Amino acid sequence: MKFVEAERYGAVPLLQDEMVRESPPLPDRDDSPPPIHRTHLLKGKDGLHWRDPTLREVIEYLDSADKVEQLNASGYLQHLTFNDNAIKEETRELKGIPKLVKLLGSDVTDIQKNACGCLKNLSFGKENDSNKRAIRAAGGITALIALLRQTPDAHVREEATAALWNLSSCDVSLLHSVSSHFVLFFN
Questions:
Q1: Residue whose C-alpha is closest to residue 31's, from 61, 56, 62, 59
Q2: Which residues of 90-116 are buried (b: 16+ CB within 10 A; e: fewer)?
Q3: How far is CA 108 from CA 23, 66, 74, in A?
Q4: Segments making up each domain of the chain, as ranges
Q5: pTM of the prediction?
Q6: Helix (H) or strand (E) holding 112
């Protein structure tokens, strides 16, 4: 029997089968789709096998005329960009930022919320200053302020405000741009 040291409780017996095992290290980054034969869970009702879309495909879906595809793509991209600086950089390189800024003007509230969440994730952290400048260049600050002015939805307002907060933590010129937009917003 093995024991685990707990600060407050002393030694606690822990069976080998109950131990949490660490996941194996991930291989080098590979943007190819996962193998189609991964599991039976990826098989649809029609017998077809499904795979996760590549990042390029997700970004292309942002331009779809189908609102459901826009909603799913923006939501999935928000998930992908959370705490992954490599995906954030690649999203910028694949021209995803202007597409997200365009989605801020959607008439579907959930698409607006997802687009704001993506921009928030893309602009989080000092290491993403290039993304902050790209958001500004794509008209993102103006679009976020306009969205704040017109949306009654509290979740959209929260995500838009968080994106603007992240954008304000960049170089002085971008900070000046955000603050001047806020002055216009509150006047």
A1: 56
A2: bbbeeebbbbbbbbbebeeebbbbbbb
A3: 39, 12, 12
A4: 52-186
A5: 0.70
A6: helix 109-122
What is the per-residue pLDDT for 181?
53
Burial of residue 6 (number of CB atoms within 10 Å: 0-12, 13-18, 19+): exposed
Domain covering 52-186 in this structure, CATH number: 1.25.10.10
DSSP codes, 36-78: TTS-GGGB-TTS-B--PPPHHHHHHHTT-S-HHHHHHHHHHHH
Q: Residues 100-129: pLDDT tens digits? A: 999 999 999 999 999 999 999 999 998 999
Q: Which amino acid, 21?
A: R
Q: Name the token pair of 94.
A: 């694949």
Q: How far is CA 52 from the centre of its chain?
A: 16
Provide the 8-state DSSP code for 174: H
> Residue range 137-143: average pLDDT?
96
CA distance linking residue 76 with residue 98, whole number of Å: 17
Token pair belonging to 43: 């098989």
- Other CB atoms closer than 10 Å to residue 89's CB: what's the count? 15
Asked if 63 contacts 99 with a C-beta cutoff of 8 angstroms, the reply is: yes
